[in-house]
Write a structure and sequence with these properties.
mainly alpha, Four Helix Bundle (Hemerythrin (Met), subunit A), 5 helices, 0% strand, Transmembrane protein, membrane, transmembrane, transmembrane helix
């Protein structure tokens, strides 16, 4: 059920209408009998037409007030719905920025975990899998989304940096895959001459740093 004050016909209006109708009926009856009995020329309280005009004016005025009141309440309800919609939209876009920050950071965190689990260094097969996976994962960050407009002006450059490093890593990953194409997947990546993996790894570290700053920027966006 809606809020009680948004109902089109309220209990108070019904009561007012009943009271006014009863009062008008009694008054009109009395006026008519008084006018008929005394005659129009002896009726001391004005003509019957004047009374009817006055009553009609009151009824019209009450109706106009009621219409204006309903219009105001309807407008208020629409504004409240719009505010809730804007709030949900705002919160959703801020949350999207947080999720993209996690995506941007994940490839480097996974790489670090692989390095910790590998005693003799990363293998070619592991690096190739990591490079392919990182490229596909980072494509999930939409740089043309409206959510980026929510960043504070001092954080806008994060988007530019992110776009730059995303392109750089994709290029580096393509080179890594090309230069390790004929290498033994079980061989250490360090044995591949000029694999470009160290540079690609450094770019992932830069993306991780950008992701941290993006998380902080999202937290600074004020609520509405």
């Amino acid at each position: 059920m809606g809020k009680w004050y948004l109902r089109k016909i309220e209990i108070g209006d019904v009561l007012v209408a009943c009271l006014v109708a009863g009062g008008l009926a009694a008054t009109l009856s009395w006026l008519i009998f008084a006018w008929v009995g005394a005659g129009a020329e002896k009726f001391p309280w004005g003509s019957l037409g004047d009374w009817l005009a006055a009553i009609g004016t009151w009824v019209i005025g009450y109706g106009a007030w009621k219409y204006a009141r309903e219009a105001h309440l309807l407008r208020q309800s629409e504004l409240e719905r719009a505010a809730r919609r804007d709030h949900h939209l705002h919160a959703g876009r801020v949350q999207a920025l947080r999720e993209w920050a996690k995506i941007v950071r994940r490839p480097f965190r996974v790489t670090v975990d692989f390095e910790k689990a590998s005693e003799g260094g990363l293998l070619v097969g592991t690096v190739k899998g990591a490079a392919k996976g990182a490229v596909e994962l980072l494509k999930l960050v939409p740089l043309d989304d409206e959510a980026w407009r929510y960043l504070d002006k001092r954080d806008v450059e994060l988007k530019v940096k992110l776009a730059t490093f995303l392109l750089l890593f994709e290029s580096q990953a393509t080179t890594v895959l090309e230069r390790t194409k004929k290498s033994d997947p079980k061989a250490p990546i360090d044995t591949v001459s000029n694999s470009l993996w160290p540079e690609a790894r450094e770019t992932l570290a830069d993306l991780d740093a950008i992701g941290i700053k993006l998380e902080e920027a999202a937290e600074r966006i004020p609520e509405i």
